[in-house]
Amino acid sequence: MRKPVADPPNMGKDNNKVKLRKGLWSPEEDEKLMKYMLSNGQGCWSDIARNAGLRRCGKSCRLRWINYLRPDLKRGAFCPQEEDLIIHLHSILGNRWSQIAARLPGRTDNEIKNFWNSTLKKRLKTTTTTPTCSSLNNSDSISEQPRTDGVGVIFPVNEHDIDIMGASLSSSSSSPTSMPYPSMVTLNQFDPFPHVNNSYDMKGSFNPPTWLTTTQGGVGEGLFYGDYGKIGLEGEFSLPQLETTAAIANNNNNSCFNNTAGEKNHGQSFKVEVDNMFGLENNHHHWHGESLRMGEWDFEELMDNISSFPNFLDNFHC
DNA sequence: AAAATGTACAACCGCTGTAAC
DNA sequence: AGTTACAGCGGTTGTACATTT
Matching SUPFAM superfamilies, A to Z (predicted)? Predict the structure, then answer.
């Protein structure tokens, strides 16, 4: 724990105006905010700052609470499962840290961002010669050459040459946060459970999500329990491999996407079609040229659907 | 032992989107 | 329609601590 810093010279009272504090939070400030939040709950942050007796702006209080004081934060080192998930998600989402964080319970976007920038990025750089699962899709080390990674294959592509399920993919993005892989597309069998044996035991009866009844769960004996219960029904679970234009031309029915991907039982069961999971059932949605609008329909819809994947790290105890 | 350098991470800044007025 | 306040996000900076020279 770092020592709190003393007030900078401009932090005192000035002409009856209370100057707002900046910089590191002192334990006293933390305690004030924590007490206030626990007894009053969340509200308007500027009010919270005022009512809690903090000489901080609401924004600062919000950040402190979200990134540090929140009781549900995990903190501590990232476990390998988390690392791999971050890498996976980053390969899909790019620098959308909040969305990545949403899939890692107890972790904040700031924490993940820092971890990525300080550790993972560097590590991936150094492991490009011997890539592993944890070295995929390094946005800073993408080679111009096609390469295999063991899990997926990254191809340099012409942005107009890739068609995914009838939806073309372009690397151009109008989003302020551009995807990190210009001119690259990962043709990869997306594996939402990188540390789960690929031969998930998806057979047998549905087991209720363990989080409904217990905090215990996890991966063991070939089973994975997420909040989806069991993913898939009768065979190995695998999401469809992304296809090139040519491949799709030969498979206009997209039959590989029609596999039932999951079943969830919250009193009643329902099936989730893989194509629906990815928002791909809507044929007029295209990733093509300007129409790849990450941050607009395609990406948001995609991520909405990806968000329906289990929070499987809930079940890891790192 | 001291200075220089590197690392990790907390916090700030600027921007965008949204709601209320 | 314009303005304001606020929440949220991602990029960046600042700083304490660790390691190396």
Answer: Homeodomain-like
Query: CA(A47)–C1'(C3) in Å?
Result: 21
Domain assignment of residue A181, yes or no: no
A window 268-307: Cβ near strand C (< 7 A): none
What is the domain extent for residue A101?
75-126
The CATH number of the domain holding residue A60 is 1.10.10.60
What is the maximum alpha-carbon separation in chain A?
75
pLDDT tens, residue by residue, A7-49 = 433 333 333 356 788 888 988 888 889 888 888 888 888 889 8
pTM of the model: 0.53
Q: Which residue, A69, A71, A65, is CA-closest to A49?
A: A65
Task: Give the CA-to-C1' distance from A211 to B19 in angstroms.
Answer: 35
Note the helical H segments in A180-313: 245-249, 274-277, 297-306
